[in-house]
Amino acid sequence: MPTRRNEILIGAVSVLARGGPRALTHLSVDAAAELPKGSTSNHFRTRDALIQGVLGHLVKTEQSLLGDLLGKVEGVVDREAFARRLTDMVLYMTDQARELTLARRAIFLEAAWRPEIADQILGWSVRYWQLGGRWLDRLGSPDPEGHARILLACLDGLITEVLTRPLPALDIQRATRIIVDGLLDEREVS
Prior knowledge:
The chain has helices spanning 4-19, 26-32, 39-43, 47-70, 79-94, 98-111, 115-138, 144-164, 172-184. By secondary structure, the chain is mainly alpha-helical.
C-alpha cells in the first residue's frame, strides 16, 4: 500500500503531466491525489520542497523503469539491435510512461530558471551518460561518454517530437538507426 507521501508524489506527477510546472500547487496535488486539503502541505511545506520531492520521485521511478527496459541492452553488441532497444525506449516513454515523461519535461523546464534543480538534473544525467558510454564503447565508439551525451540529447528530441507532433508519425526506428550510425561513423570535423 502506497504511503501518503508517495500518493502525494504520484498526484504531483499527474498535475505536472496535465498542466505543466505552473499548475503545481499544494491544492492541485491534494485534488489530483484525492486527499484532504492540506495533505500536500503537511508533507512538503513549500513549493520548492514539493519540487525537490517530485524530482527525487521521478529519478527513482525512471531509474527503475529504464533499468528494466535498458537492461535488455547489456548483451547487445550490434548497431541494429542497439537502435531497436533505443526505439523501444522512446516508444515506451511516450506511451506507457507518458505521464512520467511529461512530468519530467515540466521539471526540466523549471530547471531552466532554478540552478539548484539544474544541478540535480546534471547529476542524474551524468549517470545516464556513463551508462550510455559503456554501451557505445562496446559498439566501437571512439568517444563513448561524449557520444552518449549526444545520443541522449537526440533521444530527448525524439521523445519531444512524438509528444508534441505525433502526426504525421516519425519513423522512430529509422531515426534511432541514423543517430546511432552517425555517432559510430563520426569522422573528425576540423
